[in-house]
Amino acid sequence: MKTPARAFVLGADVLSVCLAGLAVYTSAFGVFDNAWVSGLSVGLGMVVLLLGQTRAPADRPGDLLRDIAHLGLALLFLWLLWRWLGIMLEQEEFFIEISDTRLMMGWLAFAIIGYATWRGFGLPMLLVYVALLGYILAPASLFGAGESWTRVAENLWYSTDGAFGRPVEVVSRVVLVFIVFGAVLQSSGAGAVLLKLAFAATGRFTGGPAHASIVGSALFGTISGAAVANVVSTGIFTIPIIKRAGFRPKFAGAVEAAASTGGQIMPPVMGVVAFLMADVTGIPYLSIVVAATLPAVFYYASLFMVVLVESRRMGIRPTPKAERERITRADWLQSLAFFLPLCVIIALLVQGRTAQFAGVSALGVACGMCLLLFPAFRRPSAWWAALVSAGRTSATLMVIVTAIGVVIGVINMTGVGLQFAQGILALSGDSLFLSLVLVMLGCLVMGMGVPSAPAYLIVALVMGPALERLGVPTIAAHLFMLYFGVLSVVTPPVGLAAFAAAPIAGSKPMETGFEALRLSIAGFIIPFLFVYHPDILIINGVTAGGLAWAVLCFFCATWMIATALSRFDARRLEPWEMALRLAAALAILWPGVEPSLAGFALALLAIGLHRLRAPQIHADKTLPTSGGHK
């Protein structure tokens, strides 16, 4: 039983390397044929995901049957893709009529895509997928769209507006090369160097190990395409150190989950979402990066605040000087393997070069630097591990964007996005704030269980029309949706990043999820600033006064919320003090100058009363003596 299982694993590894190689080739030399590149990317992704479910050696008799079934599904999907490719190439020459048998093949492919989505991403995404396919087929009497199964198959399988639509095109042509780039840096050891730099930079601060986790995850998150991957990569180092510093296990896991999630909103790569947003909105990539920079800084500054409050509450001191990391010349030199490729990406994009050219150029620089600076990376096994890791991550992403392509096709055929927008407007009336809250809830639900890039694609297509009808500027609307789509990975009951951190921390998944939600509270504030304080986006008519006001409102409100939820400032807060601080934060963030000024006054009152009631402890420098020394 061990031999077949190992053969399946080896096959998945080989095809993973092929998928990574295809991503690099198309970025470096261009697309040789649209149908072939899309078909190969989806086909390799599907086979790798299905075969990758194998665990060698197989422990139970049923494991071998499951693996054989997955192999059969993979081969069947490849056959369906081959038939699809033949029809697509024929359609390029002349129009052909698609028979009912071939249309049934399309529905068989939909079923396999749904199964693979469930295996790779769990039940939430499968429910969205099945619900929308059910909706488009259901008759109008059952509140469905009433489309025929033949038309659905023709539009969503035998076209470029469904399974092989824009998500597949953008991810396979642009995004995958950045995943290879991140895998090379992580496998070479550059990720470990970044963590060492983070620990050295934050050791002198109270709660230093937790701050180091924040900095390290922010740096690595810029090149990682998924918060969960970031948690697993950096959490195995940071979480045990945070626990040793004296923090509770659930807090240690929550810090890593919240910090890793923030990497998906941190420029310049933003977990590869920046490139998808540029394609969806038509806004230049550089404008998106500039607009997203200050909000990302806000998010991580808020995490520093929460860790500081928690450290003071638990009496945790800075890391002793003798135990702090010391950065050597070799460490600084090795850090160039990370920083130099990032500079290459920014420089090329500023020059107006394409994202894929910037990505493959950065990959080339990273490979050269890693070969030069990390001797262990010169072994063929290290390269193989990097490409396998990149290919497997790419495979899961290709499967989910194929499913999302079907979802987007349903939305385009039925207009359900506009119907959803009309429903929000009808429910909220003339209240912009209530509409934003409803969109926020929708984004959190639709993004659950899905990586940041596909989560953004889902919410942008469904929620985008609602925000556009509210008059929200395009960049503000899409960043609003991105933030809440990303934050779904730390929002219970399906907080995947928190659930990934919990086993490493030795804590319960659900309590780690709620703790991560508390730490990420600023992420729920910042998107509303996009709408009510657009100066923080910088690119649209920013004024110095408006920017300063937005910064003041954010940090004051965040401090009020952080201390209230931690129930600690200079000392433990009473329940009425918590309520007063939360009320002050709400007033500060409420639209309009007058409520904000009232909130500031309430915040000053809360802080003043707290300081007056805090116990005054004085430590004498010398001890009193009564008599002489003996």
Would you mind describing this structure in some detail?
There is one protein chain. With 630 residues, the chain is mainly α. Among the domains are: 96 residues; 225 residues, no CATH class; 70 residues. 75% of the residues lie in helices and 0% in strands. Helix 7 packs antiparallel against helix 16, helix 8 packs across helix 14 and helix 20 packs antiparallel against helix 23. The longest helix has 35 residues. The C terminus is likely disordered.
Could you give the topology of this structure?
Elements: H1 2-29, H2 34-51, H3 61-93, H4 100-121, H5 123-137, H6 149-156, H7 166-188, H8 190-202, H9 208-221, H10 227-244, H11 249-262, H12 273-281, H13 285-314, H14 329-350, H15 355-373, H16 380-414, H17 416-428, H18 432-446, H19 452-469, H20 474-487, H21 496-505, H22 509-519, H23 521-532, H24 544-566, H25 575-589, H26 593-613
Helix pairs in contact: 1-2, 1-7, 1-16, 2-3, 2-7, 2-16, 3-4, 4-5, 4-6, 4-16, 5-16, 7-12, 7-15, 7-16, 8-9, 8-14, 9-10, 9-11, 9-13, 10-11, 10-21, 11-13, 11-21, 11-22, 12-19, 13-23, 13-24, 14-15, 16-19, 17-18, 17-19, 18-19, 18-20, 19-20, 20-23, 21-22, 23-24, 24-25, 25-26
Domain TRAP C4-dicarboxylate transport system permease DctM subunit: 140-539
Function: Part of the tripartite ATP-independent periplasmic (TRAP) transport system.
Keywords: Cell inner membrane, Cell membrane, Membrane, Plasmid, Transmembrane, Transmembrane helix, Transport
